[in-house]
Amino acid sequence: MNYVIPAETTDLLHCRASAPSHRDPMSAEPLVSVVTPVYNGEAYLEPCIRSVLQQTYSNWEYVILDNASTDRTPEIAARFAAEEPRIRVLRNPELLPLMDNWNHAMRQISPQSRWCKVVHADDMLMPDCLRALVEAGEAHADIGVVGGYCQWGDRVACDGLSYPSPHVPGRELARRVLLGETYPFLSPSGLLIRADLVRGRDPFYPGPDLNADVKVLYELMRAVDFGFVHQVLSFVRRHEESATSTQARPMLRLPLQQLELLALYGPEFLDEAEFQTRMAQLLDKYYRVLAHKPYRARTEAFWTLHRETLERIGQPFSSARFHVKRLENFLHKVARRVGRWGGGLNAYGPARARHRREPR
To answer: Following DSSP, what letter does each residue of 242-274 receive, concatenated?
Structure first.
């Protein structure tokens, strides 16, 4: 079901009587609408807000949409908004599904903004994030989305273009992402999007699925180019309460979503040979992962999700392929154990050596 709340009914937690006053309209800096949709975000919201306040770029507004939180989220947001006129806090009167809340947050950006920057409530922006992304986006008229490296937990992610390339045609980037050559789409917190592209789509994120934030990027890449800054510009937090940890990982959605995205956008951005080769690779990976994980405790909802998704993309679930992968995994474990025993079982030596050489 699609929940739509009119903008006026969400204006329950305005911290000022009027809209934020922005910088001089003659400013050389384009206005950036920063957006944070949040639900029960008290653990991380304060450092997120502070990271926006610490930007070296100054012409921004900050919209925080509270999705009917039951913790201290409203108080934290209101405290900062009372001190900073560029912050505007809104509250949904009732809890919306995740993607409906994300979409409603995107509807709140200023009609004067040139760029839109999402930062999720558990993430943070590096001080030069807005300045660097805006400069890259303004350098070429065809750029509609800009990314940079992300600090993802304890490692750097979101590789984009070969240094020092500053931008790439959107269709070429989509092709490379589908082929697994690069992946700058890790999180909305790592991207800057041209505001007219946001206003031109309602809803901005297509559908309720967790990968809707990736789907919209493929759709934008049809018509705009992608800019890239070779700096770490955002921090994407990894924790056990995230949507990835609580919803995607237990249901093994990520390898399933890779297949779905390839089926949806591969025919458009890849040639036939590339598409078929990549589909074969991802199907092999999918069944290997599916067979590797403990499967006896999986629920009926898990299997329904996987069977229905595979059927929808024209790749019906193959029990035979699944059981072959289970057998391969079993034999692999046996070879590892025999290899550990070592000693006089020289017949397993070659297998043991191969196992050590092969990446896991």
So the answer is: SHIIIIITTTTHHHHHHHHHHHHHHHHHS-HHH
CB-based contact 126:232 (threshold 8 Å)? yes
DSSP-assigned letters across all residues of 165-234: --EE-HHHHHHHHHTTS----S-GGGEEEEHHHHHT-SSSS-SSSTTHHHHHHHHHTTTSEEEEEEEEEE
Q: Are residues 138 and 205 in the same domain?
A: yes
Considering the domain architecture, whether residues 22 and 100 belong to the same structural domain is answered as: yes
- Examine the domain organization and report whether 196 and 285 are in the same domain: no
Give the pLDDT confidence of 270-310 residue by residue, as tens digits.
999 999 999 999 999 999 988 886 665 578 888 999 999 99
**19-43 pLDDT per residue, tens:** 344 444 556 899 999 999 999 999 9
211 vs 347: CA distance, rounded Å? 47
Residue 2 domain-assigned?
no
Supply 170's token pair.
Answer: 């959107």
Out of 235, 261, 290, a domain closes at 235
Q: How many domains does the chain have?
A: 2
Domain span at residue 271?
246-357
The b-or-e profile of 117-156 (16+ CB within 10 A means b, else e) is: bbbbbbbbbbebbbbbbbebbbeeeebbbbbbbbbbeeee
Domain membership flag for residue 163 = yes
- Asked if residues 288 and 325 have their Cβ atoms less than 8 Å apart, the reply is yes
- CA angle 93/99/104 to nearest 5° reads 50
pTM across the whole model? 0.83
